[in-house]
From TrEMBL:
Sequence similarity: Belongs to the HpcH/HpaI aldolase family.
Pfam families: HpcH_HpaI
Residues annotated as binding substrate: R70, E134
Alphabetic keyword roster: Lyase, Magnesium, Metal-binding
Name by which UniProt lists this protein: CoA ester lyase
The HpcH/HpaI aldolase/citrate lyase domain, residue ranges: 4-238
Residues involved in Mg(2+) binding: E134, D162
A single GO BP: oxaloacetate metabolic process
Entries under SUPFAM superfamilies matching the protein: Phosphoenolpyruvate/pyruvate domain
Length: 298
């Protein structure tokens, strides 16, 4: 299944958790980090574990969204407590905020291995997505994710807002009121995250769009992310989910062309390149066409 929309839900909000699975997101990410005040961390963990357990049966029957959890950073003293509680709910994966490099993920993987054994979970079943480039130091480690041996790593995303705070940037985008493209530093981090994710054949998730009321701006941003090669996008409000889902779904034009390319090669087995509408289509076009049709099947 192609996971387009990844909705963050505060772990300490029972009301929001109750609504999470019905909002249409491909993946629900229970947030134990930024959206939860320090004094509410314990409550958030327990509610997250209960939600994960309650929705596990739906996952087993193939009817539910993917269940992920964003834990607290690995340089904090909170993440081990997060894992000790939530692994009982057998989440599909963990989003690792403010990741500082592959070595941190190896440490986390070792901890997960022990917890998986205790909770009857198949080894390496708990996947990881690293949030990279949220500090200057972590941004410099992004290329390493492309080649390191990290069996759990399912993909990468990046955090524009945290990076801006970390480096003291007063703008992230060019143009009036920040309506233009990313400035050079943010463009570099974004591009490296995208390339490293694809180098691993993993998911590449666009950073959240902060103005959740601006659905027009979100639409343009999500469409640009898809066009640039991102496979999905993080959401911070349920209203963003349908916009992201539509933006990352193949258009009718894309689907029609994909079918024509697949049918053309099926009718000419063994061909490496074939003419179509005055241009040549080759094996990379066939691969992309198959991806489009796979996305349509969900």
């Amino acid at each position: 299944m192609t996971l387009r929309s990844w909705l963050f839900v505060p772990g300490d909000s029972e009301r929001k958790l109750l609504k999470a699975s019905s909002c249409g997101a491909d993946a629900v990410v229970i947030d134990l980090e930024d959206a939860v005040a320090p004094e509410a961390k314990g409550t958030a963990r327990m509610q997250a574990a209960r939600w994960l357990a309650a929705h596990r049966q739906q996952v087993l029957s193939g009817q539910a969204t993917a269940r992920w959890v964003r834990i607290n950073p690995l340089h904090s003293n909170l993440w081990r407590e997060d894992l000790a509680v939530i692994l009982s709910g057998q989440p599909d994966g963990i989003i690792v905020p403010k990741a500082r490099g592959p070595e941190q993920l190896r440490m986390l993987s070792a901890e997960l291995y022990e917890l998986e054994q205790r909770n009857g979970i198949t080894s390496n079943a708990t996947r990881l997505i690293a949030m990279v480039g949220e500090t200057a130091a972590s941004a410099l480690t992004i290329p390493a994710y492309a080649t390191e041996e990290l069996p759990r790593l399912a993909g990468l995303t990046w955090g524009a807002q945290d990076l801006a705070v970390a480096i003291g940037a007063s703008r992230m985008r060019d143009g009036a009121k920040g309506a233009g493209g990313w400035t050079d530093t943010f463009r570099l981090v974004r591009s490296q995250a995208l390339l490293a994710a694809h180098a691993r054949a993993g998911v590449a998730l666009e950073t959240p769009y902060a103005d959740f009321a601006d659905l027009k701006g979100l639409k343009a941003t999500a469409e640009a992310a898809k066009a640039d090669g991102f496979t999905g996008m993080l959401a911070i409000h349920p209203d963003q989910v349908p916009v992201i889902n539509q933006a990352f779904a193949p258009t009718e034009k894309e689907a029609a062309e994909a079918r024509r390319i697949v049918e053309l090669f099926a009718a000419n087995p063994g061909a490496g390149a074939l003419p179509l509408d005055g241009r040549m289509v080759e094996q990379p076009h066939l691969l992309q066409a198959r991806r489009v049709l796979e996305a349509l099947r969900g």
